[in-house]
Amino acid sequence: MASPEIDALTQALARLPGLGPRSARRAVLHLLKKREVALTPLLRALEQVNERLSVCSLCGNVDTSDPCAVCSDPRRDDRLLCVVEEVSDLWALDRSRLFPGRFHVLGGRLSALEGVRPEDLSIDRLIARVAGGGIDEVVLAMNATLEGQTTAHYLAERLEGHPVRITQLAHGLPVGGELDYLDEGTLAQALRARRPVA
């Protein structure tokens, strides 16, 4: 039996995505065994992030500065704007180092079932950014779900009157994917997005 404090730590870790009760217990045991090299630095890092955490007023990213490190980067191309659903999507795209432009985080996606309406997302801020000028292309990087595609379609309609090129990420067959293992939605999208063989 663990003390109430250790049990509370285990329960707190178990609420994190990807960690269940067993994984949380293993993590707690590791932290306790390696207190000086694991627990103490983790506590310091958590305190620092907790004290300095902010949401970027420009793009909606989560960082310890406002504007965030992505928006503050002078090497970014201001003419390209990539719209994503969540901060995790921004981080994934930025980690790839393949997109040289700026980002805009919606804070979710439209969903009638979950009651998420356009006014619940940062769509008006996106329209204002585009209306401000200086943006040539808006990349709609929504997830390949029904709600993600509905959101992309809605955004395309809202941006229609602005002098920007509107694009979206390609969907379809993953590199190295075998047809037999793909779901029908992925196959359908791949067929719709087919292109001539060069």
Automatic annotation (TrEMBL):
Gene3D superfamilies: 3.40.1360.10, 6.10.250.240, RecR Domain 1. The keyword Transcription does not apply. GO terms for molecular function: DNA binding; zinc ion binding. GO terms for biological process: DNA recombination; DNA repair. InterPro entries: DNA_Rcmb_RecR, Rcmb_RecR, Rcmb_RecR_Znf, TOPRIM_dom, TOPRIM_RecR. SUPFAM superfamilies: Recombination protein RecR. Keywords: DNA damage, DNA recombination, DNA repair, Metal-binding, Zinc, Zinc-finger. It comes from Sphingomonas parva. Residues 79-174 form the Toprim domain. Belongs to the RecR family. Pfam families: RecR_C (PF21175), RecR_HhH (PF21176), RecR_ZnF (PF02132), Toprim_4 (PF13662). A zinc finger (C4-type) spans 56-71. This is Recombination protein RecR. May play a role in DNA repair. It seems to be involved in an RecBC-independent recombinational process of DNA repair. It may act with RecF and RecO. The gene is recR.
